[in-house]
Amino acid sequence: METQNQTDVAGFLLLGLSEDPEQQPLLFGLFLTMYLVTVLGNLLIMLAIGSDSQLQTPMYFFLSNLSFTDLCFSTTTVPKMLVNIERQSKSISYPGCLTQVCFVLLFAGLENFLLAAMAYDRYVAICHPLRYAVIMSPCLCGLLIVLSLVISSADALLHTLMVLRLSFCTELEIPHFFCELDQVIKLACSDTLINNILVYLVTSILGGVPLLGIIFSYTQIVSSILRMPSAGGKYKAFSTCGSHLSVVSLFYGTAFGVYISSALTHSSKETAVASLMYTVVPPLLNPFIYSLRNRDMKQALWKLI
């Protein structure tokens, strides 16, 4: 099969969710609405936290960063899909594809670490309430954000630079609505063993360690709550964790859904739908989860509005 060096590749074709012309207006309207709701919801969360002095706590500091990450995560993929549908085009340039790969990895990794930091915050608040203000200092919170950003950036740049060494075949169709790292690697004609090893190794470490941290935090939280004597104290402790636990379940549930779908099915359309659930749905639903389940957040939003 004829191969092309990376410098000769003009671009890729994003096949999207459907090639039926009659479905394109429906898809455009649906994803435009979802994107606008995502932008509005996450902006409101950030503005409400920034404008309310009662929400200047570590938990809401992490939440505002999570909302910013969700906003950027959705902006990395959805606008390009909307432009392609509107122009009736499927193309994306080679630099544009690599940029999309890089930012998807960056914001997915950042969200992963932020959820772990928020779990640690809840662990300290419930298991060590008297030392909470000392442990969760502004310095530590800022350090956790910077560390998460540095590690996620290094991971994204590593995988993007490793893709640059690949040569691609003349068949450059990606059966997704965005450039996913795994799908781009599959199109390469050159040896991808190192790329695949890196994907599995880095994903296992950077995905597994935060997940283990979340599991450990909630194991300690549940153990501490069960030892509380009053039912009111148990309910209050559980209620402070409910929103975060819902977001964690949504994020990791859709992520595992993508992995299981790609492993069990050979249908590119089903895999694309699974990736849609992972990249678009969590940023859309997270603001609703936090605003509907959190009394302080609802009050701050009402004040803002």
Description:
This protein has 305 residues and is mostly helical. It is 76% helix and 4% strand. The chain contains eleven helices and five strands, in the order E-E-H-H-E-H-H-H-E-E-H-H-H-H-H-H. The chain has helices spanning 24-51, 58-87, 94-127, 132-135, 138-164, 181-186, 193-226, 231-264, 268-279, 281-293, 295-304; strands at residues 3-4, 11-14, 91-93, 168-169, 173-174. Strands 3-2-5 form a three-stranded mixed β-sheet. A two-stranded antiparallel ribbon has the order 1-4. Helix 1 packs across helix 10 (281-293). The model has no long low-confidence stretch (mean pLDDT 86).
Describe the biggest sheet? 3 strands, mixed
Oligomer: single chain
How far apart are the termini? 60 Å
Structural class: mainly alpha
Radius of gyration of CA atoms, rounded to a whole number? 21 Å
| Coarse morphology | globular
Give the DSSP E fraction (strand runs of 2 or more residues). under 5%
Could you list the spans in which at least 5 consecutive residues all have pLDDT below 50? none
Secondary structure elements and pairings:
Layout: E1 3-4, E2 11-14, H1 24-51, H2 58-87, E3 91-93, H3 94-127, H4 132-135, H5 138-164, E4 168-169, E5 173-174, H6 181-186, H7 193-226, H8 231-264, H9 268-279, H10 281-293, H11 295-304
Key phrases:
305 residues, mainly alpha, three-stranded mixed sheet, two-stranded antiparallel ribbon
